[in-house]
Amino acid sequence: MLYYTLKLFVSALIIVLVSEIAKRHSGFAALVASLPLTSLLAMIWMHVDGMESLQIAGLSNQVFWLVLPSLLFFLLFPVLIKQGLGFWPSLGVSVTATIAGYFVLLPLLRRLGVQL
Fold first, then answer.
1. pLDDT (tens digit, 9 = 90+) per residue, 35-69?
2. Contacts of 103 (CB under 8 A, 6+ apart)
3. Strand, helix or coil for residue 50
4. What gap in Å lies between CA 20 and CA 9, rounded to an integer?
């Protein structure tokens, strides 16, 4: 139980740090947020838990492909905000576009033989 509490604390701490850094230095916060921290933490926890390196490498490969649709969010959200749509509608449209991107990408990857 202590191990899971430690994992939760470290993971949450990173999220809180990024949001606090963003209040003072948005560029640096963007740099930290753009790092694959979730993936890195997952890989570290998998390694500590004794998983095979090939399984961890497989996760890395899968994350690569699944990051691509999420880029739609980061392209669309600021454009919509700048067009005056408002935060919540921009967020909703951007999330919807990202989900649509996943629905397009996943069958395409299956046809190309990429295993997820």
1. 888 899 899 999 999 999 999 999 999 999 999 99
2. none
3. coil
4. 16
Q: How many CB atoms lie within 10 A of CB 72?
A: 20
Amino acid letter, residue 92 = G
Whole-number percent of the chain with pLDDT over 70? 100
Closest by CA to 106, choosing from 78, 71, 76, 65, is 65
Summarised one tens digit per residue, pLDDT across range 45-54 is 999 999 999 9
Instruction: Give pTM, 2 decimals.
Output: 0.75
Residues 6+ away with beta carbon under 8 Å from 22: 29, 30, 33
Cα dihedral 9, 12, 17, 23 in deg (nearest 10): -140
Q: What is the DSSP letter of 35?
A: S
> Rounded distance, CA 115 to CA 112, Å?
9
Of 94, 88, 92, 90, which Cα lies nearest the Cα of 73?
94
